[in-house]
Design goal:
The chain is of the alpha/beta class and 434 residues long. The chain contains 16 helices and twelve strands. The structure holds 2-acetamido-2-deoxy-beta-D-glucopyranose (NAG).
């Protein structure tokens, strides 16, 4: 700044024609006034902060020496800058607060982040319409120490690390017979009965059915021998866990099921859990928007809700992944803590309820099986047997889950689909008559 001033002074000392000397002196005086007002609005020795005077220099350079209005404009600019600086300080405070919140949230997310790192590398999002979330989770590393004896059996019986598994005690012996006869009839080799008592083990052996009996010293077996359907259901999830730990995908099957084709030809294998549904049409099986009407709300009387009929926990394909094993643990844990709960309800709640305050939901991928291929007995007896076209389609399995007279209906299914007896299904009512 001193240099500039020197420059002006030097020019002042230079020679100019005599006649215009006075005029020049006046002009120079006025210019001086302007320039000083521009450069030193608070006086020559003002102690304004360095940043402020630098900013003013810049605006001065842009505007040039146009007129003497400059000081006013600069004052306006200065006050603008002052209020901006104040706002900036406030924002900085807010940002600091947000950063702190973010840090805390980040800590909470630590586990999820780790899980994410386990699952895969980070990616940039691709172009519109090309992005897909992770659906097929990686399988766990097989851990043979979970059950070496079972590992050996599975090595012999499973095909491509896949196996049908059913639990059975003597209460369901006659259904079990229809069950494995239908499986043999289709020619499915990779299936296994988990015998819950000696009699069923013998029964399977004598019928050349692959069987596995758990070690009696495993504590949870006491309910197995005497337990009814629901007690056995809780046990089922604990036993299943070992199959998954060993690295096998399991098609868990109740015994009130007739096999008509090989289900492994119809499994997608893209989800943690792929399950047959209790639904009976597209809406109920695959999900729909159920509109709830509350006229008192006037303009907002319609509330939209998401609905889906439950997955059938008696027939599902489960891949050996962390979310799958977590699901089994959650269900088994809740069934032991809440003995009155129904395993199918618990299974669905754990699968579908989202995370919310006080609750971390399961992050499992789900797929609903085709309800005509993996058919429940409501679909068969209410719809299919009355429809000429649908009657001609051959399901993969039929699950007699909706009817208590299971054995006669299973046998009728075999008669109808295997032996071609066209009227085999007709004598049954649509639903049970209590
Ligand atoms: C049900 O959904 C399937 C596809 O999932 C579709 O092909 C079929 O037309 C639908 N049926 C009805 C009655 O909407």
């Amino acid at each position: 700044m001193a240099g500039r001033r020197d420059g002006l002074l030097t020019r002042d000392k230079g020679q100019s024609p005599r006649g215009s000397r006075i005029a020049v002196a006046i002009v120079i005086g006025v210019l001086f006034g302007c320039v000083f007002a521009v450069f030193y609005p608070h006086g020559l020795f003002s102690s304004d902060s360095l940043i402020q005077s630098r900013r003013i220099d810049k605006s001065d350079v842009q505007i040039g020496s146009s007129s003497c209005e400059l000081p006013e404009r600069i004052n306006i600019l200065k006050s603008d800058i002052q209020s901006l600086l104040e706002k900036n300080a406030e924002l900085n405070k807010q940002v600091k607060g947000l950063t702190e919140n973010l840090r805390l949230a980040e800590q909470g997310k630590d586990n999820a982040q780790k899980q994410f790192l386990v699952l895969g590398e980070k990616h940039k999002a691709g172009p519109f319409g090309t992005v897909k979330g992770l659906r097929t989770n990686p399988t766990v590393i097989p851990d043979e120490s979970a059950n070496p004896r079972l590992a050996k059996i599975l090595e012999e019986v499973a095909i491509q690390k896949e196996i049908i598994v059913a639990l059975a005690n003597s209460n369901v012996k006659s259904m079990l017979e229809v069950w494995f006869t239908s499986i043999k009839n289709v020619g499915i080799p990779n299936y296994l009965v988990v015998a819950l008592d000696d009699h069923i083990e013998e029964f399977c052996k004598s019928n050349d059915v692959p069987v596995y009996k758990r070690d009696p010293d495993k504590g949870i077996d006491s309910i197995a021998q005497t337990g009814g359907n629901h007690a056995v259901s809780g046990l089922k999830f604990r036993i299943l866990r070992e199959f998954l730990q060993l690295g096998y995908s399991v098609l868990l099957s109740d015994v009130d099921i007739v096999y008509l084709q090989n289900p492994f030809d119809y499994i997608y294998r893209d989800s943690d859990v792929e399950s047959m549904t209790d639904g009976h049409n597209n809406m109920t099986a695959y999900g729909y928007n159920d509109v709830f009407d509350e006229p008192a709300m006037g303009w907002a009387r319609y509330a939209h809700t998401m609905r889906i009929w439950v997955y059938n926990s008696g027939f599902f394909y489960i891949r050996p992944t962390l979310p799958s094993i977590e699901l089994l643990d959650r269900v088994a844990g809740r069934l032991s803590r809440e003995p009155k709960s129904w395993d199918q309800a618990v299974f669905n709640e754990e699968l579908f309820y989202p995370s919310h305050p006080g609750y971390d939901g399961l992050h499992a991928a789900k797929r609903t099986m085709d309800y005509y291929l993996f058919m429940n007995s409501k679909v068969l007896f209410k719809t299919v047997r009355k429809d000429a076209k649908l009657k001609k389609l051959k399901p993969v399995i039929v699950h007699v889950n909706y009817h208590p007279d299971k054995l006669p209906r299973m046998k009728a299914v075999v008669e109808f689909y295997v032996n071609g007896k066209q009227d085999a299904l007709e004598r049954f009512p649509d639903g049970s008559q209590w």
